[in-house]
Amino acid sequence: MAQADIKDYEFTLIEKGIKKGDAIVSVRLIHKPDGKLVPGAVIFATRLDMAPDGMEMMTASIEPLPSAELGVYRFKLDLSMEGKWRVSLAAKVQGETGTLENRLVLKAAP
Questions:
Q1: pLDDT given for residue 31 in this prediction
Q2: Which domains are seen in the chain, by residue range?
Q3: Cα angle at 38 between 33 and 43, to 5 degrees?
Q4: 10 — phi, psi (to 5°)?
């Protein structure tokens, strides 16, 4: 039986501003009603693009990395130019039905 609604979960960026080039970004998966971190989610889709700057077709690589902290998910990004980048994530949360989808915006500085 599901413990909550999939809408009760969200990914949030730990670092919102980083330098362009190869970067490591960390996101927390939070259960919004109690603010607790949620470990063990299966992230099955990722995308990195410059949609916030009107260049959705400008994409770059995003690669999952291991994380030592439960409920924190890390990714290696190739931020080829400065500006606003959108990180799109889709995940399954253990014990819940449905798919969690979030789009997060970060800024790559020179």
A1: 96
A2: 6-109 (2.60.40.10)
A3: 120
A4: -155, 150
